[in-house]
Amino acid sequence: MQVESTRKQHVHDMWEAVAGGWDEHAAYVDDRAAAAAARLLELAAPRPGERVLELACGPGGLGIAAARLVGADGEVVVSDVAPGMTAIARRRAEELGLEQVAARTLDVDDIDEPDASYDVVLCREGLMFAFDPATASSEIGRVLRSGGRAAVAVWGPRELNPWLGVVFDTVAEQLGRPIPPPNLPGPFALGDAGRLLHLLEAGGLADVIVEELDVPLIAASVDEWWRRTSALAGPLTQILASLSPQAAAELDERMREAVRPYETASGVEFPGLTLIAAGRR
Q1: Closest CA to 88 of 168, 138, 25
Q2: Contact present, 185 and 109 (Cβ < 8 Å)
Q3: Higher pLDDT, 89 or 17
Q4: C-alpha distances in Å from residue 204, one per residue of 22, 55, 147
Q5: Beta strands 118-124 and 206-214, pairing class
Q6: Angle between helices 222-232 and 162-175 (to 10 degrees)
Q7: C-beta of residue 210 within 8 angstroms of C-beta of residue 151
Q8: For residue range 101-114, what is the model confidence (pLDDT) as tens digits?
Q9: Which CATH architecture has domain 2-157+185-218+269-280?
Q10: Cα–chain-centroid distance for residue 10?
Q11: Rounded CA gap, 134 and 137, in Å?
């Protein structure tokens, strides 16, 4: 139990350490995830006056969009394991005059909220980082009211998301060890649609659907893509910072070679695939 607690704290600290990068690139994160956000909101359909919980909120773009739907009589709680992330999300909401947005530090594995306290739960690109996805799915079901809706997005299979898969492969080749480590949750942990559906059903949701959504990543240059990716990819940021100048230069050369198949006349274009899942309590 102590080992698991230590690993959890390590992951939480890792996301806290990259909060500044997510703040800097918040507008890009929103643009990158716009299609997924639109579909999540369409499926969960927050209504005026309802109470919404966003888990693993990052800079809070999805929760902010939900706040506009629930209106001044509703409430949106943006939450994350990293207090730095929730502070960013809350500040962005305040700057937009959205007083119905509150911020809390919550863990998707153990949501410190009462039973049946939300009409909608949203989680974009966060459930796959749960240490126990089955428990996390049950927690989502627990905090939903009867008739409440949940919608989540996770990354599809690694091989269908080379915008990040090639990074992990290249860094692993450079370091001689798997990235992310096998004892930690990673971005592609829930890339199997059947498993995702089963988890949500077992967590207490009914009428669960799972869809695929193409989400290509387009950047003006390899440098632009790499700057953003290295700033936002929590498991990588600390690793990259620890490299010697020589190792960093070698990694840069490897990375550029790995990305070459995705270069275009106007920059770089990677395919990407998100799984969108939704159900009701």
Answers
A1: 25
A2: no
A3: 89
A4: 32, 17, 12
A5: unpaired
A6: 80
A7: no
A8: 999 999 999 999 99
A9: 3-Layer(aba) Sandwich (3.40)
A10: 17
A11: 5
**CB 280, CB 168: distance < 8 Å:** no
- Residue type (1 letter), 18: V
pLDDT digits (tens, 9 = 90+) for 174-199: 888 888 887 778 899 999 999 999 99
Pairing state of beta strands 51-55 and 75-80? parallel
**Peptide bond before residue 180 is cis, with ω within 30 degrees of 0:** yes
275 has which bridge partners?
A: 154, 212
Cβ atoms 278, 208 nearer than 8 A: yes
CA–CA distance, 249 with 84 (Å, rounded to integer): 31
- Within 13 Å and on the Cβ side, how many CA atoms surround 229? 22
Reading the block at residue 111, the tokens are 């949501």
The model carries a pTM of: 0.94
Q: In which element (H, E) is residue 78 found?
A: strand 75-80
Q: What is the mean pLDDT of residues 129-136?
A: 95
Helix ranges (DSSP H) in the chain: 2-17, 19-24, 26-32, 34-44, 61-70, 83-95, 133-143, 162-175, 193-202, 222-232, 234-241, 245-259
Residue that has been written with the tokens 């905090």 in this structure: 143
**H/E element, 268:** strand 267-270
Scanning the structure block, which residue is given the tokens 């995830």? 33
- Name residue 179's amino acid: I
Give the DSSP letter string of 198-210: HHHHHTT-EEEEE
